[in-house]
Amino acid sequence: MGPHDGIERFTSPGKGRGMRALRDFRLGELLFTCPAYTCVLTVNERSNQCDHCFARKEGLSKCGKCKQAFYCNVDCQKGDWPMHKLECSSMCTYGQNWNPSETVRLTARILAKQKLHPERTSSERFLTVKEFESHLDKLDNEKKELIQTDIAALHHFYSKNLHYADNAALEVLFAQVNCNGFTIEDEELSHLGSAIFPDVALMNHSCCPNVIVTYKGTVAEIRAVQEITAGDEIFTSYIDLLYPTEDRNDRLKDSYFFTCDCKECTTKQKDPAKLEIRKLSEPPSPKTIRDMVKYARNVVEEFRRAKHYKTPSELLEMCELSIEKMGAVFEESNVYMLHMMYQSMGVCLYQQDWDGALKYGQKIIKPYSKHYPPYSLNVASMWLKLGRLYMGLEKKSAGIKALKKAIAIMEIAHGADHHYIAEVKKELEQ
User: Fold this and answer.
1) Residues with Cβ < 8 Å from 261, sequence gap 6 or more?
2) What CATH code is assigned to 1-36+197-262?
3) What tens digit of pLDDT does each residue of 159-172 get?
């Protein structure tokens, strides 16, 4: 059986095209794999991972010209050259001022790939890049301006080595990338890069997904996180599933221009627990609760912006103040409290305050396990972070317990033979 025998493209009622199962798949079973059509390693991971295959190892060798791209060996360097050459001389020319966004870098590579390989690729068994939905007609002025900024940067940094389409075609392409691009993350959900996986983009969204997408280098792997029966539509999740129904749908409308009608969005079954209110002798009024939710949603957005210009200690203070304020009305298991605790944990990790990070992680893990679906990468990565913190702080038995919890989820989501799992097992043995 080939790698794509169990699935087909079909027209999903009310959802347009989608993917469905032609046979049963059991929990943890691989449905299909998709190599990246093209991808780009994020700037922050340079020298940690190979620019071509995304392997994580010590002692990578760097490109002799720009000294900014790193490779496993000569094969990886040669393999990457058709893409790296778009940037190499430009990086040398601009030096410190070379700063196109990751979206621009990825889009430049799509243009180069289309020129190099106009025929269908092995990443496009079911859906081609050309068929991507752009939703250009639905973009507001702010989004259109962002695209124009990206187009200007593309011309600025890539004028030497790219033959572009006209402005209108570039608008479509950037809009397509915004809706159909993927971010590749590691086992702790740290951002590694961006990629185009056409066949993966064929799947529709559900907030109770039956598959999960993980990465092995630059290949996407899709596994069942529920039992799937022949004839079932295959659903992945496009967004973080922590948040209540209204927030999820705001995010889906804003980024993907649809509203979800899955079981969770119709029943809103998890919303009361996600918006848990403190049991006080004088219960807060509906208005107080509404105001606090509004405040919480604003803080989440404000923090996202603040990350770019505030110092770590300012960010931590911002988190702690918002946690204190929300804590007057919300339980600690409330997702807005968890969001700010997660951000605080991230700042602590960045500052190498391991005890502080652990304190937040311990509060987060149980509610995470309740709010997320059973085999969630968010839960696995939290167990992993906790396990590694415990081990580093010489709390061995707690560390072993946490790492084993992570492995149990990863064996389903990543497959038992994934190198991430082998690495975690090594940590258990030490």
Assistant:
1) 14
2) 2.170.270.10
3) 887 877 799 999 99
